[in-house]
Structures are given as C-alpha cells and as structure tokens.
C-alpha cells in the first residue's frame, strides 16, 4: 500500500535472511520490503502480509555431488535412419545428496529405459530417473527431458540415363548425340535408392533453339527428372554435343 506513483516503480518484494553460519536446517520469520527498479527499499510502501515464514535447508558440502544423467535405451530405430547426435537430457547434470560413503559409489543417475524401436523421427519425451536408495536429488528432480535426434541414412549409387531430344523443328533432324547416355550419382533413402531403375529418370534436351550444326548443351541436375526423394549429386559427362542437320 502507498502512493500509486511509487507502487508503479516497485519491481519485487524482498526478504533478508541472515545465515549466521547455520549448519543445519532452520526456519525464520522474515520481514518483507518493497524494492524499486533501482534496487532501493521504499519505506513508504507497506506490504500485506509484512512478513513470511521461510524454511532453509542446509546441506553439508561433503554430502552433495554433481553427476551426469545417463540415458538408457532399448531397440533399434527404423531402417534407413540413425541417431545423428548424442542423446541429450535436460538437465544433463544434477546435484545429489546423501551420506558421503554412498555418494562415492554413484557416478551417474540413470533414466528409465526408453524404447526407440521403430522410431523414425526426432522426438523429445519426459523420462523418470532411477534414484538409488538413500539418495536425494536437489530441487526434487525426478524426471528429465530427453531428446533423440534422428537423421535419414542416405545412401548413393550411380545410374545410367539415356538422352532424349524434344521440340526439334520439323525441318531438322539430330544425326548424332555424343554421348547417348549420362551417368548420374544419386542419393536418398536407402529403400528408394535401391528400388529405382534407369527408366524412372529422364534427361530431355530442349532443341527449340537449335540451328543447323553443332548444338552443345551443359547438363545440370535441373535437367534431369527424378523420382520423389532422390537428389542428383553429380553428372558425367556434364556436357552433350548434338549434331543437327536438315531433314
């Protein structure tokens, strides 16, 4: 409570606790003060309630230890995929408390087993932690969020594609194509790459601008029609020479 102009400047209500070398858990009644944007107490502002009871948990440093989370999985991801990054837990490290002799035997906290069998996409899920008897985790953490990043396991292979001409003027003919086929390197999902055949691809040369004589054409991946899911990595040769003559 207080003048509106001053209330508008309040960013938080703060209580001060003096630890005084406490070595065990304790509770204390703490007075509350309004704090403005400059981190200064504003005595003209009254809070309701004007105090609160606070319980402080004190832990002996010998009884606390930081350990990583160890993620446990079972099964295999779908064929054609692989786990592309290390499994990640959030938080990745936790503070555990317990008797010193018990802490010495623990170097990580395991998650419950995550079944990744048949997984085909990146996923995140909340997973329970397996907390040993006699051990507590700071902030009462009992679960972590685990991210499993998948990537398609692309493979590559070479395939031969014939050269076909189109849009040649009716008074012209192609007397020679050199070469008559090109070899392309393709990549994609292994199931798709292994199943495609030469007839699934086409390399069509647009001859609408061709005149009598030599017609040289640089070939790029955009000139080749491919099945869905296939990427053209390389073309050999990358240039074709066609000879055009009168019909």
UniProtKB/TrEMBL annotation:
The family database entries (Pfam families) matched by this protein are listed as: YbbR
Show the InterPro entries listed in the entry.
c-di-AMP_regulator (IPR053154), YbbR (IPR012505)
Q: Report what the protein is called.
A: YbbR family protein
Q: Which organism is it from?
A: Berkelbacteria bacterium GW2011_GWA2_38_9
Q: What is the lineage of its organism?
A: Bacteria, Candidatus Berkelbacteria
């Amino acid at each position: 409570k207080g003048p509106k102009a001053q209330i508008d400047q309040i960013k938080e209500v703060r209580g001060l606790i003096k630890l005084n070398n406490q070595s065990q858990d304790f509770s204390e009644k703490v007075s509350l003060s309004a704090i403005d944007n400059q981190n200064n107490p504003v005595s003209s502002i009254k809070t309701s309630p004007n105090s609160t009871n606070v319980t402080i948990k004190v832990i002996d440093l010998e009884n606390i230890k930081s350990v990583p989370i160890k993620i446990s999985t079972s099964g295999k991801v779908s064929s054609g995929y692989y786990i592309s990054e290390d499994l990640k837990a959030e938080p990745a490290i936790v503070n555990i408390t317990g008797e010193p002799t018990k802490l010495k035997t623990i170097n990580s906290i395991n998650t419950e087993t995550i079944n990744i069998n048949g997984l085909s996409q990146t996923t995140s899920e909340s997973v329970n932690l397996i907390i040993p008897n006699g051990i507590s985790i700071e902030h009462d953490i009992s679960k972590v969020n685990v991210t499993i990043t998948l990537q398609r396991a692309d493979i590559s292979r070479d395939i031969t594609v014939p050269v076909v001409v189109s849009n040649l003027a009716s008074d012209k003919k192609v007397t020679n194509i050199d070469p008559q086929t090109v070899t392309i390197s393709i990549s994609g999902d292994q199931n798709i790459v292994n199943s495609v055949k030469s007839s699934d691809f086409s390399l069509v040369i647009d001859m609408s601008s061709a005149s009598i004589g030599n017609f040289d054409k640089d070939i790029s991946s955009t000139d080749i029609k491919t099945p869905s899911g296939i990427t053209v990595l390389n073309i050999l040769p990358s240039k074709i020479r066609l000879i055009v003559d009168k019909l």
